[in-house]
Amino acid sequence: MYRYHGLNREDAVFFNMSDLICNLARTEDCIIVGRCADIILRNNYIPHISLFISAPFEVRLQYMMNVREMDQKTAVKFLKKMDRQHKKYYEFYTSEKWGTPENYDLCINSANYGIKETIEIIERLIINRKKA
């Protein structure tokens, strides 16, 4: 954190995390979920595969109600809050629009495939990329 001591806490955390993401991606295969890693890696010319996995709101709502045992009102509020936070964070630190297909190698609606087949599609993408 001392490297970015002149910045506010949120910015210092972001830039420290960016350094960590770059160092990790340069030294080993890894999966980084969120944290603007797609843009961070692209801007640092680090080869990567960037994915955007989504599902319709109603599907995500049902999942939250079932898995997290939330009532509908709580789950709706939680999902909307999380979507707002993700969008705000991503757009603030990248100046890109969150969820724009052009920013990703693959955008997939996991509701159309289920978790298992979504994983299989991603695995095929990775295997084919390694062959190229």
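Second entry:
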Amino acid sequence: MMLEKTKKIYNKMSIASKAALWFTICGFVQKGISFITVPIFTRLLTTEQYGVVSIFYSWESIFIIFCTLNLFSGVFNNGMIKYENDRDGFLSSMQGLVSTLTLCMLLLYLLFFKKISLWIEIRRVLIIVMFMEILANSAFSFWSAKQRFEFKYRNMVILTLVVSVLSPLVAAVSVINTPDKFGADVRIISSACPFSSGSFCYKYSR
């Protein structure tokens, strides 16, 4: 009886309300998975390795600002309204700009990697992985923003949940089956791998 009432209420909801509901549920699940995986990786990694992972993601959050300029937030919605007849073109332009900025940042790092590596205390291979992950994340973020704008929540929710589950799962399995001294590197690289699917999101959304 309760289930039937819930279904009736859900069916009467507008597409915007349904999208908002599922986006909220998706956000809660993501946060929950992140919360659950913290104690798992603190046990799998040494204190030093976990520190390397934390430093990596701290610097990544800083580099993301310069590489993406947060173009997939409020600015993106304005562009989708302004270029209503050419949204794919606008999307491609935004992704092209972010890719160019990211590659320029990577080039600057490669030119001055010795000084920068000493400053940020992260090895060169992990920095390269960081920029590759930023590229994949930006593609995923633009695709997600487009889905939100058009209230196409089904594909987004499915893909987001799959990546949210797959990323820590792959990382945990990889760390368990890797020698201890490579734990931090494997944790970072294996977590980034599922996000490579973000580069295919534009094709998937059509």
